[in-house]
Amino acid sequence: MAGEGRARGGAGAGLRAGVLGGGAGRERAPDAPGVSAGAGGGGCPAGGNDLQWCFSQVKGAIDEDVAEADIISTVEFNYSGDLLATGDKGGRVVIFQREQENKSRPHSRGEYNVYSTFQSHEPEFDYLKSLEIEEKINKIRWLPQQNAAHFLLSTNDKTIKLWKISERDKRAEGYNLKDEDGRLRDPFRITALRVPILKPMDLMVEASPRRIFANAHTYHINSISVNSDHETYLSADDLRINLWHLEITDRSFNIVDIKPVNMEELTEVITAAEFHPHQCNVFVYSSSKGTIRLCDMRSSALCDRHSKFFEEPEDPSSRSFFSEIISSISDVRFSHSGRYMMTRDYLSVKVWDLNMESRPVETHQVHEYLRSKLCSLYENDCIFDKFECCWGGSDSAIMTGSYNNFFRMFDRNTRRDVTLEASRENSKPRASLKPRKVCTGGKRKKDEISVDSLDFNKKILHTAWHPAENIIAVAATNNLYIFQDKVN
Amino acid sequence: MMLSKGLKRKREEEEEEEPEKEALAVDTWWLDPRLPAVAQAPPAVPSNSLLDLSVLKLHHSLRQSEPDLRHLVLLVNTLRRIQASMEPEATLPSVPSPPEAPGVAADSLLASSDAALSASMASLLEDLSHIEGLSQAPQPLVDEGPPGRPSGGAPPGLGALDLLGPATGCLLDDELEGLFEDIDTSMYDSELWAPASEGLKPGPEDGPGKEEGLELDEAQLDYLLDVLVGTQALERPPGPGR
């Protein structure tokens, strides 16, 4: 398996220049032609505290014909924000690296270019069940950087892998026992010893699997979360949550199990789980019934009983047959401060104060106009779509995706929200994104789009926000859009 | 199958009740795209088409080789909710009372299909747990000390299966062949097993052997299958730098 993870394109120059090498057969070009990116500089000034988002880059093929394998299934910045990882349905991981500031090219500051590409998961066959295990990457989570190499966890439905991404820009020359081409030298012919010297070489980025955590999940893994102790992590499937040590692959500890003795009594599944960013004994998990449970691993080894239970009472006036489905939480994320958490259900994003279990402190409507369309969304299965959400670096803003390649941003301080679109048409370099509006009835204004014209196949399920700066990455099917704040 | 029978009945019944469908307070936007969007009042009674749709979806979901549990659970819960509100004695002020004769027929059909539906859903969910039991992969090491449940553990009642240690090349072990003679492996594609070992007999050859019944009890069978999964893992090349 040693060669498996090597970045395709090998030792040749070009990975850092953004050219994707190798036989992966991918179409993901670094930048769309004619839409070369630049960040910051010029243009209209930002208004007050409002963020003015501008197009920066787009990655991926322009083809109308989207290969299923190229559909992005997860996006994640690392702790510094210098690296941006994406996973796709084909089991591949692509890592982009932010270019350093370069005085000679001021406008390309902050551009992300391909750093490494590797096949993380392959399709597998479960012989016992006669089932194919999908290679789709469900989640990627970075580990904090401890040395020159970078580590990330990537998972499909069943298996989690720890990948090491390291650079090599030197090679040793002048071995005693072998020639430059690697052939062994005849020991009798060696008359003198020399010390090998390190010579620079073209940068090569290698990805290698360091740990494989397998066979611990019967159901589909939906979440992984690295603990703040940087030694352990959790993985959650529909019914169970396991705790792992990063060094140990042959065992894990089950800390939550909601599987009923009698499967007929199953009414609820786990939908997401996350460790608290600072308290290494605390984690939360959300359910398909719209509840969140906070567990403290110090109180009991088995966290089947929660420490806190968060649930908003149902509004009787908006009750419908689809109430439960739309209350199902698709994502739960702690704020950077660790004081709040945010949950995403089908129609809204809610911010919870960890000290108040009875109801959220904020509720933001993402696309309330869909409430009257729930029946048709149930028919075409869109009602089961799982949207993610994310916090801005300062926790003052939050973002989530919607349909028609729209995504929504909410400023928690000003209470303002905006709808933006990720599209090729609006992708001029450094162009400001124009706010979009959905018309819910009556006369449609000029730039508005009516609910009936929304394209429900263009879903933005995965978004990520740079941990410190106002840079966001938005996955639109097989394309990755990067937007930056004008002021940035 | 029970489910499809229920489905057929519903469709016939639906044609009879066609005129009253319009009066039901349910979002009908999706039925006619030319109609303006209807603000959805909380529906007092679901249309039969909603029940049909839900049953169809459940059926489709269960037919997947590996059903999405979340999808399944949400569907089942929604279906139960629809069923519950279709009970004849429920207070439904906004629904015009159906004509007497079809109404009575509808009630009895509903009642019988409810029972059938519940039974089907229950048994289908139960099936899922059987699937899990069969393929539960082992955690070879059991750590007694630390807290938490170690996933998997020492299987009970090994008895004669002690010889099947994971360290042995047990797929080629002669004793193993004998054990497999009693088990009906016809459900598994024989080609899949062939490359892994030459010891296993290919194809279904059971015939009368099928009826002998399993000599291994369930726990031993589980362990046996677990070990095979573990052996499969052993055959993969080891990862680097462990």
Automatic annotation (TrEMBL), chain A:
PANTHER family: PROTEIN PHOSPHATASE PP2A REGULATORY SUBUNIT B. It comes from Felis catus (Cat). Residues 22-41, 420-441 are annotated as: Disordered. Keywords: Repeat, WD repeat. This is Serine/threonine-protein phosphatase 2A 55 kDa regulatory subunit B. Belongs to the phosphatase 2A regulatory subunit B family. InterPro entries: PP2A_PR55, PP2A_PR55_CS, WD40/YVTN_repeat-like_dom_sf, WD40_repeat_dom_sf, WD40_rpt.
UniProtKB/TrEMBL annotation, chain B:
Residues 1-24, 137-160 are annotated as: Disordered. Residues 43-90 form the SERTA domain. Pfam families: SERTA (PF06031). This is SERTA domain-containing protein.
